[in-house]
């Protein structure tokens, strides 16, 4: 147990905040949970960040780098009935000292949030003379209240009380998605709706409260409805729960399997004999029939004698495409999140591109029909983009083709796919556009294989998000396989086996079932820390953008966020967001993670992400120009506003600032000087300032940068692109962009060694962190934190818990000595570590 009666001290009278922290921490020292030096760490932490939560509760805890002083996870509670001044006008009456070695304290933090939202309960705990009252309120392992015992501080409802027996959705319990549905339902009525699960209760209008019920799949609950329109509310509530709050069972179209939820664990690490080899892009095993994807529009006349009519037709098709893209973006946001939906929002840029429209208009004026003019203009542009050396433009060729096909279909009709897709189809194509991938019917499509492409292209990213196993860069041979051929697609190892024999089918089916069972087990153990079999702990965080994602991340087992992309606040705007707007969002993120680390990356614009309100220079190579921190320093007013908002928000949680695209000391020093000036002006506490290692020069100079940066986070997507001089979205070279290339691994190794020599921690927040083949190598190289998309958190933690640190270090050393990425992926020791024996 992490909290017990002997760790609770009542009726304390500390003279100051420091004294209160020392007394609370001493409880942990006396219990043998921490070494005495951790007390000073708690005091130092208080200088960096305000740990006062509200409702007279403070949660002092130590600095991240001092976890070696913690012997075991424990929590001590100092009750101060008369209160002790904390910061400004804040007064703390419950001082909850936390020493966290793993995730075990999260349940107590959730209980604290219950208390935080109930002033009467908080006041009662601050004055009680019985430590069991505090224990019962905070300890997740405390005996549940007997059926006849009164609920803690639940106000009596007016009018008749309607009580309903309900059950949490069977798919995944009361997690973020069904909780949001319930909150929206509750807000439609004037009645008070509370849910009870065990000894916990929650207001149905509070998403945080609903998540903190801890109601797992199918868990029994009681819904209590009272007040105005109670009967109508109860009827709607019953119907909503009968529909599982919109959270369908696993395997349905509305509940795609999380990306990365099935790490490979086959007995034989090699591909089956006769299999075509590609690159694994989305994990899982698919058994089905091959279907060649053919995207064509209906035929059309090449010429016209009515230019005005053709222009009107083209404009109408463009408008239809705009509306359709908004609909697709909205749908994908609901299915796989805003990050992936942004792909389709970005496609709208092409529809208003002046050069493209002018080329089409000229062709119409010269007698071309609207479809012929549009197709000619887009084909010419796409060919030009794919054929030149500019990585920004080449990356967008596939996206342009996607938009071109969409408009053409609105002009002349015709299906997106010329032949009906059979059941259990494994789609084969030269490449797929993002729209084609998003529109695939998950009831029929079980896998994807492409001849070209790369594992970090939009198509691969969407396949992972949709939970569809995928292999890319498998070569032209996949296009020679006849439609209807039985195949096995291995998304874990990167292979496609045509015409498998019964024994191969049996092995594949066994692996598929094992993957499903592992995914279930990983989700069930999501809150357990990621500790290797020989006792080495790796932090697993989530990459997020919006405050709303914080709830989902914590519910998925994330230990904070290793990357908050702030670009969403700046995109598609004619003017930049103000300081207060940014502060509100950053504050909500900090509060949403409840004291867990929140790493906010400052604006990463430029390159392939230009801003409308900034006059970007004309650059032959935008990826080598004014982007990331360079752009922020060139726009100091924009940078200062974001920094001030972040520093203000840091008072509400453990928020750190991370600078993107740092290429050396000069820019880092300039940024730190600006941040310090704003911090002093705000009289704000210091915050950790780290950098993204995405440029090879940053890795080479890591020993110097580590003197002045508080932490490093390696962005493997860009680091791979810059180190190998290969655009990761290039239509033909994508297969070369492999983060397991020894050149990239040596840069990571160099970075980690330099950081650790200065006592700095290192995270990885690129796609590499979610690659089951890469995780053991990153861990073996000494990376301290892996940050992945929310659906990948549980699976990654489960994989780490099955690894040996000693063996991972051996594999990492062997990988550094390899000659190619293929050699690394083929290492027998790595395959054994990942796939097992």
- What is the residue-mean pLDDT, rounded to a whole number? 80
What would you call the structural class?
A: alpha/beta
What is the count of β-strands?
Answer: 26
Report the biggest beta sheet as strand number plus sense, adding barrel if it closes: 8 strands, mixed
Spatial order of the strands in the main sheet?
Answer: 10-17-16-12-13-14-15-11
Q: What share of the residues lie within helices?
A: 40-55%
The fraction of residues in strands falls at 15-25%
Low-confidence stretches: 142-159, 248-269, 388-395, 415-419
| N- and C-termini, Cα separation | 36 Å
Describe this structure as you would to a colleague.
With 837 residues, the chain is of the alpha/beta class. It is 42% helix and 16% strand. It is built from 31 helices and 26 strands. The strands form four sheets. An eight-stranded mixed beta sheet has the order 10-17-16-12-13-14-15-11. Helix 11 (354-365) packs across helix 12. The radius of gyration is 28 Å and the shape is globular.
What is the compact description of this entry?
With 837 residues, the chain is α/β, with parallel strands linked by helices. It is built from 31 helices and 26 strands. A hairpin with a 5-residue loop joins strand 18 (530-531) and strand 19 (537-544).
Layout of helices and strands:
Layout: E1 8-9, H1 17-30, H2 37-48, E2 52-54, E3 57-58, E4 74-85, E5 91-99, H3 106-116, H4 119-127, H5 131-138, E6 162-167, H6 176-186, E7 192-197, E8 200-203, H7 207-211, E9 220-226, H8 230-242, E10 276-277, E11 279-282, E12 285-292, H9 307-336, H10 338-351, H11 354-365, H12 370-387, H13 391-395, H14 397-412, E13 425-429, H15 434-438, E14 445-450, H16 458-466, E15 470-472, E16 486-490, E17 495-498, H17 502-524, E18 530-531, E19 537-544, H18 548-555, E20 561-565, H19 579-592, E21 597-601, H20 629-634, H21 636-649, E22 654-659, H22 665-682, E23 689-693, H23 696-700, H24 702-705, E24 711-714, H25 716-724, H26 742-757, E25 761-764, H27 775-780, E26 785-789, H28 793-801, H29 805-816, H30 821-825, H31 828-835
Helix pairs in contact: 1-2, 9-10, 9-14, 10-14, 11-12, 12-14, 17-28, 19-21, 21-22
